[in-house]
């Protein structure tokens, strides 16, 4: 079996070795330097201590915080199993941070779709075991390869498009470096796509020549068999052998149904099955036996050929399994980089600056414990039901207190003292997590850019190490772990010890702790220890490599503030805490007397040191306070200046708008005055001219009014609906207001194109609208620049005349219409109506539509009479700018675009009244007014009013009781009603009724008092 027409050669390349995925890179373990004298036990001990430290610092819970931000199953599993990569060297950690920075930058350009990147390892392993893969499994492999190649091409395209900046050439390079040596198996993916239609999960005929021949023969054979059986079934039916022709399949063979009493109609036919009642036999005619046999043979041959194709594709996937696995590992790194970027945005993280040990000091300002921060955010979300509560000012006190960690380059040991529950252990854990996060490429939730050395090992002894199984007391377990730490620690290690020397005699504990700390100052890069032993804080006076820190305690509230005071020593405040919780005052007072007797000199010395430290800090705070006050005064002055300027702008804008409004109103009065003058002249001349000169006089007056209107085109921006094309350009993902959707909120789902349109999503509906119909939300970054802009208003006013001319173009080219989204309000259904009824309904629908809107007309197909009448009306209707078929596949619906011809007349005439004496030609009046106002007009008194109903005519004008008066209607026998063709009218009693040819009354004009009133 050979594949037809296309020849493919599997790429038999081995996974690259220059940057092969190290197993340790995806495990939270760190290796030590490998000196020649290092012992295997020391390495194993270091790995054990590192793993235990990760558990103590709750690294696994921190990794799980990345899980919601992953996009692939591989990345999700890595975060859930705490298997995210941790750099083994300073270079690897910097590379991970660069990848996170590149992902942060890439995410700003829009979302990245990882759908299709899935873990196909089980499929690949099955192919390696020579297990034949199904069509679905092969398609999953192909989809993964195609999506991987597409994402790589998108990254490369983004890097090329971003090449304009000075440093842009390096923004995407960390992500591109991950995929540098990947083999996307394009030939294998193309081969699978050539052989299989994955959208339908079927093997295509072109997969092989044999398969194409077999399926072609099978098709011809099936056509012959189907024709033969249908003919036999029809013959049985005509002979009364079955109620209706029946061709079915039994025992994998096609046959016909026949009554048991008429099976003789198929002589020598084979009975394949019998119905449950026994009344119907399913028989295979003799002539169909060979064709059915051929169908079975061809079906088996087709199945065998398909199995051969699947087997070939399975073997090629097995050959490429190494490259595919390597590709999945690379995209897991890409996914984790984007997850770290999303986490950084979530916690407002800062990129840490790593340095080699000893070259830089440690400086972390305003860092919050990431686990406490996540816990508090989750609680607030549950209480308030929305993530917006994270910014609620009333809950700021519930968030973990930010701490500052500042250690000089020369410092090797920091001793933290302070009260119980004061935050010593939490601060130490925060530093440990900050070190691990920076090594793993994660941003740190801090106020400023954190600076810290790169530590090869983070070793911690925190908590009770008591073990009954190992016969270890609290002190034994504690000191045993410190022994192991001292054995593996190096000059690049960070050591964290909680309550050093505790669990034994205080005097011996102090002595042992002093010895351990003096040993650590020469063996590690940095050691952080907590203690209640005041003697350990005196080590700073003897050696500058020691530093003290204290946890702040408020003597007013008798509660800790959880802030770290660097360079200070702290008291345990055990007696104050005991007093605050209601302990016996007599016992507390006696304890204070014992303290004074046991340590008088030392206590006074400590108080002196503490007082001196507090005074120094007080002086610093006073200086900062003065500086802050000075800055505050400058900011307030600037604020007042800006506010004053803003108020001035608003006042000037209102004055200018008022002036422009008065100018326009005066111009409108002048126009109305000129038109009234023309009307007065017309009325005066009307009584002097002969009857045959009336039409000429009317045309002359109309021409004069038209000249007046043309000479006074509106210029006020208040009447200009033309959008500002250059004021705002939406971006992908923004929330905007769309004019055509009733100024509803919508989301931009596709960047604006060259054609001046943008794709927005409103609910579940996506629609493409003009850029000019899109507005920024008030207060947003885009709208802020154009708000309250006088120049913007003047630019709109200057273009109103241009827009007016545009709105009155005959063909409607260039008109601005809303998005063509069909709703019940903009749809008229004419199906099932007679032609005249449909015409009346359509005319009312067009009249009711606003300017620059659309109308969907459902006229159906049928005989085509309604459609022809509707299209004729649309062609001739003055309010229809243009019309078009709704879609190439829907011939029963037409979309009409409604213009606003009467906007000038509406503005000038106001109440829209026309003197009757100036309009003796009622048909002409009717057409002109309908063109002006989009609806029929009615006489009332001496004027023609806009409303359709009531339609009143003075009865005294009716000279003939059988017809409408000619003075009120251009003809004595008929009247033009709306946009419907003229129909006869006749008196019926006291009703003047209008009939169709069928005689069915569709409207009446009822005689009531001195008027003839229209009724439905």
Automatic annotation (TrEMBL):
Pfam families for the chain: MSSS, MutS_V, Smr
Lineage summary: Eukaryota, Viridiplantae, Streptophyta, Embryophyta, Tracheophyta
Gene Ontology biological process terms, A to Z: mismatch repair; negative regulation of DNA recombination
Organism superkingdom: Eukaryota
Coiled coil: 611-641
Keyword flag Metal-binding: no
PANTHER family: OS10G0509000 PROTEIN-RELATED (PTHR48466), SMR DOMAIN-CONTAINING PROTEIN (PTHR48466:SF1)
Family matches, as SMART domains: MUTSac (SM00534), MUTSd (SM00533), SMR (SM00463)
Keywords assigned: ATP-binding, Coiled coil, DNA-binding, Endonuclease, Hydrolase, Nuclease, Nucleotide-binding, RNA-binding, rRNA-binding
GO MF entry, a single one: mismatched DNA binding
Domain Smr: 828-899
NCBIfam families: mutS2
Protein name, per record: Uncharacterized protein LOC116207500 isoform X2
């Amino acid at each position: 079996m050979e594949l037809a027409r296309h020849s493919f050669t599997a790429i038999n390349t081995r996974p690259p070795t220059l940057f092969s995925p190290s197993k340790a890179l995806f495990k939270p373990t760190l290796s030590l330097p490998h000196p020649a004298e290092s012992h295997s036990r020391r390495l194993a001990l270091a790995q054990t201590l590192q793993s235990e430290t990760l558990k103590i610092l709750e690294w696994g819970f921190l990794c799980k915080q990345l899980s919601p931000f992953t996009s692939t199953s591989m990345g999700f599993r890595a975060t859930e199993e705490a298997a995210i990569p941790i750099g083994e060297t300073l270079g690897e950690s910097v590379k991970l941070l660069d990848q996170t920075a590149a992902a942060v930058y890439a995410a700003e350009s829009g979302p990245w779709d990882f759908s299709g990147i899935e873990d196909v390892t089980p499929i690949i392993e099955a192919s390696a075991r020579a297990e034949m893969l199904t069509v679905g499994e092969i398609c999953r492999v192909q989809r993964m390869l195609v999506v991987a190649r597409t994402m790589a091409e998108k990254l490369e395209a983004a890097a090329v498009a971003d090449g304009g900046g000075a440093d842009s050439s390096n923004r995407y390079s960390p992500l591109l470096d991950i995929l540098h040596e990947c083999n996307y198996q394009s030939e294998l993916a193309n081969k699978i796509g050539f052989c299989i239609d994955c959208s339908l999960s079927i093997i295509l005929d072109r997969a092989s020549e044999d398969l194409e021949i077999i399926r072609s023969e099978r098709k011809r054979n099936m056509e012959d068999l189907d024709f033969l059986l249908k003919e036999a079934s029809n013959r049985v039916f005509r002979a009364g052998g079955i109620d209706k022709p029946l061709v079915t399949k039994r025992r994998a063979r096609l046959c016909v149904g026949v009554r048991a009493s008429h099976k003789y109609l198929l002589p020598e036919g084979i009975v394949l099955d019998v119905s449950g009642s026994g009344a119907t036999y399913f028989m295979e005619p003799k002539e169909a036996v060979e064709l059915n046999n051929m169908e079975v043979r061809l079906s088996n041959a087709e199945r065998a050929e398909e199995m051969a194709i699947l087997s070939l594709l399975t073997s090629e996937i097995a050959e490429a399994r190494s490259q595919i696995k390597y590709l999945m590992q690379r995209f897991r790194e890409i996914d984790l980089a984007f997850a770290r970027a999303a986490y950084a945005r979530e916690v407002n993280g800062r990129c840490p600056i790593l340095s080699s040990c000893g070259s830089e000091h440690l400086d972390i300002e305003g860092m919050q414990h990431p686990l406490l921060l996540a816990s508090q955010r989750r609680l607030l979300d549950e209480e308030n039901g929305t993530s917006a509560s994270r910014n609620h000012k009333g809950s700021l006190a519930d968030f973990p207190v930010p701490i500052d960690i500042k250690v000089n380059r020369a410092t090797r040991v920091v001793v933290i003292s302070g009260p119980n529950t004061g935050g010593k252990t939490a601060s130490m854990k925060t530093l440990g997590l900050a070190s691990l996060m920076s090594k793993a490429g994660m941003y740190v939730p801090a106020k400023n850019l954190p600076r810290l050395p790169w530590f090869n090992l983070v070793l911690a002894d925190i908590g009770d190490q008591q073990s009954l199984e190992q016969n270890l007391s609290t002190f034994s377990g504690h000191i045993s772990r410190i022994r192991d730490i001292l054995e593996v620690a190096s000059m690049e290690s960070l050591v964290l010890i909680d309550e050093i020397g505790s669990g034994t005699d205080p005097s011996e504990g102090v002595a042992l702790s002093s010895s351990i700390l003096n040993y650590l100052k020469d063996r590690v890069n940095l050691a952080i220890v907590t203690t209640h032993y005041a003697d350990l804080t005196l080590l700073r006076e003897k050696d500058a490599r020691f530093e003290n820190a204290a946890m702040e305690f408020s003597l007013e509230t008798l509660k800790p503030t959880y802030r770290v005071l660097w360079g200070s020593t702290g008291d345990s405040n055990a007696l104050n805490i005991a007093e605050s919780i209601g302990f016996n005052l007599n016992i507390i007072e006696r304890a204070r007397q014992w303290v004074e007797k046991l340590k008088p000199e030392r206590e006074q010395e400590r108080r002196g040191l503490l007082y001196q430290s507090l005074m120094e800090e007080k002086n610093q705070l006073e200086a900062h306070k003065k500086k802050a006050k000075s800055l505050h005064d400058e900011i307030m002055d600037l604020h007042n200046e800006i506010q004053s300027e803003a108020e001035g702008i608003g006042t000037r804008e209102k004055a200018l708008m008022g002036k422009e409004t008065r100018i326009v109103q005066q111009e409108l009065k002048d126009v109305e005055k000129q038109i009234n003058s023309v009307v007065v002249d017309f009325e005066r001349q009307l009584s002097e001219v002969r009857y045959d000169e009336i039409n000429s006089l009317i045309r002359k007056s109309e021409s004069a009014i038209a000249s007046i209107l043309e000479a006074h085109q509106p210029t006020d921006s208040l009447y200009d609906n033309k959008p500002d094309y250059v004021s705002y350009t939406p971006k992908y993902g923004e929330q905007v207001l769309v004019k055509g959707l009733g100024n509803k909120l919508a989301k931009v789902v596709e960047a604006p194109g060259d054609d001046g349109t943008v794709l927005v999503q409103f609910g579940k509906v996506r629609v493409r609208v003009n850029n000019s119909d899109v507005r920024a939300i008030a207060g947003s970054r885009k709208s802020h620049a154009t708000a309250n802009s006088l120049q913007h208003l003047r630019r709109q006013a200057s273009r109103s005349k241009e827009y007016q001319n545009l709105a009155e173009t005959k063909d409607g080219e260039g008109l601005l219409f809303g998005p063509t989204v069909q709703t019940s309000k903009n749809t008229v259904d004419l199906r099932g109506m007679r032609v005249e009824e449909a015409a009346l309904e359509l005319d009312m629908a067009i009249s009711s539509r606003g300017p620059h809107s659309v109308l969907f007309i459902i006229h159906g197909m049928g005989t085509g009479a309604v459609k022809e009448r509707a299209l004729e009306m649309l062609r001739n209707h003055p309010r229809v700018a243009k019309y078009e078929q709704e879609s190439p596949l829907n011939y029963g619906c037409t979309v009409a675009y409604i213009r606003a011809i009467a906007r000038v007349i509406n503005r000038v005439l106001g109440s829209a009244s026309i003197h009757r004496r100036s309009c003796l030609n009622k048909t002409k009046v009717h057409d002109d007014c309908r063109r002006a106002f989009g609806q029929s007009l009615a006489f009332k008194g001496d004027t023609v009013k806009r409303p359709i109903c009531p339609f009143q005519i003075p009865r005294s004008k009716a000279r003939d009781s059988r017809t409408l008066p000619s003075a009120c209607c251009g003809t004595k026998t008929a009247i033009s009603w709306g946009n419907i063709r003229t129909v006869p009218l006749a008196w019926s009693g006291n009703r003047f009724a209008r009939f169709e040819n069928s005689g069915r009354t569709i409207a009446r004009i009822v005689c009531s008092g001195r008027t003839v009133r229209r009724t439905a």
